[in-house]
């Protein structure tokens, strides 16, 4: 049997969106100036970099690799694992559907750790959540804990100083994955400044992982940022993490080491030169993060969407409720994100473990497939795969974002090309409604001011669950590295099926084909509510913009 692992927010999507959508009406002259000024700056920066020979990527000098510190039976977190252990199963699992609970679980692990903290994230923002997490890491290091933080470099603009100040603390190391040569400017400018390295820079590390004392781990869809933990007043994501203990954590730690020691990672000090002594940088860190000392996290003590108590409370009590059974951790090899020149024109063997194992389990399904993917572009092969399962009598259901809820409209533009074929094949399609998810009566369940789906999960026959970072789209398939857990515990798979059902019935539209083969949206899903003949809840100008631009967006980059 193969092994699995499931935002792919791409540069190409963001850049096209930035350059084709005006936020407010402007006269033609002002629009031209607004476009030309940043482009002129990018051109000048590229020219200067080329003349100075600095277009290459930052390279770190040879260094000795570091590896996971083995778990200690005497460590407090190891003792909690043993107190939580059930008679059956090698690994324990606990779903974290609530944003506040998921953040508090991470902070509690950081507080209780005594040996090591290893973090790997696609996005680690410098907002209140990011700064609070950094202070927790600093505090752990001050207690003697070794801290290793690995961040993909795509969205680190403006964070070099803060990350360098964090790394100035003893026992703290910060590394960037696949870093850019240009440290200033936006995403578009950073790509434009290294035009000959686009092939490599377009490959990103999309993994999410938090490991404490090699005893506990959290993985799933959440990055580190306010909107992933229901702390953003403007809008938040529906997301899902898994807390894991036992044998599977050892595999996750080894996968972290592969990335940490890979040729694609560079220490922060080699891209952000220190401008002061370590003690001054530590003082600066205190100044930059002081405002992160926030009051108690709202909702952290409340029961989650499954009615379960706070994980942080259970850690404090010394025993955590886990579902025990078997499971595996899968991660694409770091070489998937290296250019062809670095792999002699060949992709590393086994570099796409996550996708291959997900597909194998879809093919083996006999009763039901529940797929949740915020960015869903199945392609012809994906349509055929799901259609073949439906022909076998398997009930196939997909939950994804609507045009109104997605933060990547060009991805939606590619996805909607496949909706008629999927519906004709018998696949049930559901799209999240931000208005319904954000209603007052739904906030206890979703905790949202505006709904946006970010959960990536696959439930097979309500017996197996795959949850992690992988979207069902070309970028996750061929470009980004991904990670995931395969959990063979029916209790956990059934809980995710329950969450998906709640999302569909209370916060989604269901799609169907009319007698004339036009797509219609029924709200609420499965109900007798109003029928929409067009993309519901989305603005007219967004529909027009998408109609004009979607055909020009390369599907393989989305």
TrEMBL record:
Pfam families: PLDc_2 (PF13091). Gene3D superfamilies: Endonuclease Chain A. One of its GO terms (biological process) is cardiolipin biosynthetic process. Residues 201-228, 449-476 form the PLD phosphodiesterase domain. GO terms for molecular function: phosphatidyltransferase activity. It comes from the Bacteria. This is Phospholipase D family protein.
């Amino acid at each position: 049997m193969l092994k699995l692992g499931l935002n792919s927010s791409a540069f190409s999507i963001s850049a096209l969106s930035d350059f084709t959508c005006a936020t407010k009406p402007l006269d033609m002259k002002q629009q031209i100036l607004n476009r030309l000024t940043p482009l002129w700056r990018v051109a000048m920066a590229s020219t200067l970099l080329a003349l100075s020979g600095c277009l290459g990527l930052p390279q770190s000098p040879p260094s000795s690799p570091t590896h996971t510190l083995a778990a200690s039976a005497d460590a407090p977190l190891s003792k909690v694992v043993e107190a939580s252990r059930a008679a059956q199963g090698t690994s324990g699992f606990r779903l974290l559907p609530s944003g506040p609970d998921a953040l508090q679980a991470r902070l509690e692990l950081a507080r209780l750790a005594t040996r090591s903290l290893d973090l790997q994230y696609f996005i680690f923002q410098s907002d209140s959540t990011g700064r609070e997490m950094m202070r927790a890491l600093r505090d752990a290091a001050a207690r003697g804990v070794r801290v290793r933080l690995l961040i993909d470099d795509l969205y680190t603009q403006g964070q070099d100083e803060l990350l360098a100040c964090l790394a100035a603390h003893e026992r703290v190391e910060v590394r960037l994955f696949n870093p850019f040569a240009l440290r200033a400017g936006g995403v578009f400018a950073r790509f434009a400044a290294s035009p000959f390295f686009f092939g490599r820079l377009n490959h990103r590390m999309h993994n999410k992982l938090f490991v404490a004392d090699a005893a506990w781990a959290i993985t799933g869809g959440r990055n580190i940022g306010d909107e992933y933990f229901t702390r953003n007043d403007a809008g938040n994501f529906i997301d899902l993490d898994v807390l894991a203990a036992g044998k599977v954590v050892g595999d996750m730690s080894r996968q972290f080491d592969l990335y940490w020691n890979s040729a694609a990672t560079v220490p922060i000090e080699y891209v952000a030169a220190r401008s002061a002594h370590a003690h001054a940088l530590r003082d600066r860190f205190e100044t930059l993060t002081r405002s992160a000392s926030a009051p108690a996290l709202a909702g952290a003590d409340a029961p989650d969407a499954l009615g379960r108590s706070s994980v942080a409370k259970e850690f404090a009590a010394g025993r955590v409720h886990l579902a025990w059974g078997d499971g595996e951790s899968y991660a694409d090899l770091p070489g998937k994100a290296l250019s062809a020149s670095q792999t002699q024109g060949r992709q590393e063997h086994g570099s796409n473990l996550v996708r291959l194992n997900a597909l194998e389990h879809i093919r083996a399904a006999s009763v039901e497939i529940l797929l949740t993917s915020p960015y869903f572009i199945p392609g012809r092969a994906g349509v055929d795969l799901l259609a073949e399962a439906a022909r076998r009598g398997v009930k196939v259901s997909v939950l994804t974002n609507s045009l109104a809820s997605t933060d990547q409209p060009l991805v939606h533009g590619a996805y909607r090309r496949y909706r008629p074929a999927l519906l004709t094949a018998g696949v049930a399609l559901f799209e999240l409604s931000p208005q319904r998810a954000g209603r007052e009566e739904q906030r206890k369940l979703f905790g949202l001011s505006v709904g946006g789906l970010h959960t990536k999960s696959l439930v097979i026959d309500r017996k197996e669950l795959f949850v992690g970072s992988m979207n069902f789209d070309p970028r996750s398939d061929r470009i980004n590295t991904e990670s995931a857990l395969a959990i063979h515990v029916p209790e956990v798979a059934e809980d995710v099926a329950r969450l998906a059902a709640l999302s569909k019935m209370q916060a989604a539209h269901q799609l169907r084909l009319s007698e004339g083969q036009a797509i219609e949206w029924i709200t609420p899903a499965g109900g007798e509510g109003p029928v929409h003949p067009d993309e519901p809840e989305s603005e007219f100008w967004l529909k027009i913009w998408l109609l004009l631009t979607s055909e020009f967006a390369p599907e393989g980059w989305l």
